[in-house]
Write a structure and sequence with these properties.
The chain is α/β, with parallel strands linked by helices. It has eleven helices and twelve strands. Helix 5 packs across helix 7 and helix 10 crosses helix 11. The structure holds adenosine-5'-triphosphate and magnesium ion. Adenosine-5'-triphosphate binds next to helix 2.
Amino acid sequence: MILNAMLGVTRVFVIWSKGEASARRVADVLATPADLTVLPARKEDKPEETAPAPHVEFRDVTFSYTGLGENISHLSIRLMRGESLGILGATGSGKSTILNLLMRFYDPDQGQILIDGRDVRTIPPEELRPKFGVVFQNDFVAEGTIADNIRFFRPLSDEALTRAAEDAQALEFIENKSGKMNAPVAVRGNNLSGGQKQRLLIARALAGAPEILVLDDASSALDYRTDARLRRALRTNYRDVTTILVAQRISSIRHCDHILVLSDGQVIGSGAHQELMETCEEYRMIARTQMGEGKEGA
Ligand code: ATP
Ligand code: MG
């Protein structure tokens, strides 16, 4: 008995020292000052009164993560409110980087990114972040219930959750679960299929009534029919929401108002689907392999 007690005491010391080290690291992270500070708005950053400013604008943006090669070079985009942008490109071509810049996880090395004519560097994070509804490329579903995952700690009504789930084409599988919205979700969503997880994440992005919807490869696991239904729901119920879609499938982005084809951080094609079919060799090649020659697909 005495020996056991002694062992118990030594265990406490081991746990204590581990806990102390972890607590110090957590405190360090919490105390790290933000290096992307909010700049004061200059006069020329204020929206112009005359013509309406584009909702989202990239002005000759160049960016490099490491300072060694450019990951995005001289990118310019103008999107009016409610327009959609599709981004297509090989892996590593800089698609997610564009989204990181827009949401200001990084600042561009050159050029400016503007939302409603205001430089994103002058918009405080608590105003900037709620503008976006976003599904990241490797986003995660957390343990809890389906409703928890869609609500995601925001004060949203049950109706908003249901509406978002319906538009994200998730309501069907949720209704089939026992417990419906309160059905349990396992750690990392392990009891859901890939497509179900993606739809749950899209519902989360839609639920907050975003101004700008950003989907990074968020419908890759959906079958073509569900993907088409999702796009239709976005087009009809989110008319005023500016949408940026990153996809591998041409069918997911061919109806977008603007499409960018990226290669190594360079824009090698830009325009609407038909325009790109005529002008961009790369795009034509991708279209040919995915939709069959000459066919337009659905
Ligand atoms: P995928 O289709 O695979 O998602 P992507 O087009 O989204 O590719 P990005 O994630 O934008 O590609 O990456 C563009 C380039 O930037 C890649 O060469 C990548 O190696 C580099 N990169 C991405 N994130 C970082 C980072 N945090 N630090 C340094 N380099 C990075
Ligand atoms: Mg990516």
